[in-house]
Amino acid sequence: MKSAKPYIEKNKERFLEELIELLKIPSISADSAYKKDVLKTAEAVKKQLKKAGCDSVEICETPGYPIVYGEKIIDKKLPTILVYGHYDVQPPDPLDLWDSPPFEPVIKKTKLHPEGAIFARGSCDDKGQMYMHVKALEYMTSTNQLPCNVKFMIEGEEEVGSESLGWFVERNRKKLANDVILISDTGMIAPDVPSITTGLRGLSYVEVEVTGPNRDLHSGLYGGAVANPINILTKMIASLHDKNNHITIPGFYDDVQNLSKKEREKMAEAPFNLKDYEKALDIDAVYGEKGYSTNERNSIRPTLDVNGIWGGYTGEGAKTVIASKAFAKISMRLVPNQDWKKITELFTKHFESIAPTGVRVKVKPHHGGQAYVTPIDSLGYKAAEKAYEETFGKTPIPQRSGGSIPIVALFEKELKSKTILMGFGLDSDAIHSPNEHFGIWNYLKGIETIPQFYHFFTELSK
Ligand code: BES
Ligand code: MN
Ligand code: MN
Known about the structure:
Bound molecules: ligand BES, manganese (II) ion
Largest sheet: 6 strands, mixed
Oligomer: single chain
Number of domains: 2
């Protein structure tokens, strides 16, 4: 495969303009007010896939948002790569913390992105990274170099749990048959430290509700005499970690796969500077489970975090009140071998059991998914490694990530193929946060590296 560099250099402006157009559509899957925009984005992706050289592209209806499916089959005897990505984005709030409107993309230089970065919701997660694959396909088809078959499956519900995609995959195993799944929806260590994501954490997401008295009460007349649901909820939450920051739910760690000393030593070799990490987040110290490093805490260890908590009076001024109810949303990140349904049950049982008399507790499970690890001796991993060597001039470091793409474990179960996670974002790109951005250099480097993966995967499959 010839280097895509000259082609990218020539078409760079257009590659950026096309992505910017896609980023202008607010495809927020979590908010039904944006339904039209989510559907419009699916149409836009379809059009671009067709233009990039897919033989057939369709919008596949599901019980939820549609899946854009496209393919180019050049020879049934050649290997098939299935590219997955998502066209939906996270809600942009809090809006006032954005320096420019989230759906009016602007290019600005930053310290880590001296070539400039596109600031917009979805720029890195995942429109920008998904679109690298569309442009890589354009390069290969327009220069007559596509070495194998390719299928695209781009969904619109990743940020809300991929329920419809699970439905779609189960019903379309044949259509989706492939030799390897390729995803760019993760990150890499640094522009000069390429890495391949070899693991994702699983997830169990629940919402809890604590109810005390049947109505909001005067906190003077009743204060001290009845259970205050907010006091109780915060106490219950606080008890979920012990003084070493271990999670106290009985059985929570039972199935956790512990890494060998050798594996942990290998992990510790990845470049990491604690002082820089703290400085970038403006914290005076990191915090977490005793006995583990920062990189271990956010990748190979399970966690429990409150994502939101509410109840009572939060308006201006003061209101003396004991609320009838208090709520929280809680996520647990899981590691290989932990089953998210089992963990959800353990949480529910435990949380109900620690409720004192005087309140009633409800636990409502949301969504979840299993963790994933991909071996580093598979054909796909080796092909990815060679691709990075070609375009970065360095061997990429395998790295387990703390994030989740729950559908990946399901892909392996249903489609029986390994997933390769070639992410080009940086942790500092602020995905899910205000001022999300994606480096232009990263975007173009992705477009340059992906065709090399196609090449080496096809070669190694012979
Ligand atoms: N692309 C992210 C996941 C990710 C980001 C993994 C960076 C590794 C590194 C994905 O869009 C995401 O946000 N996933 C959610 C889970 C989903 C069920 C809402 C997550 O990890 O919180
Ligand atoms: Mn994503
Ligand atoms: Mn995301």
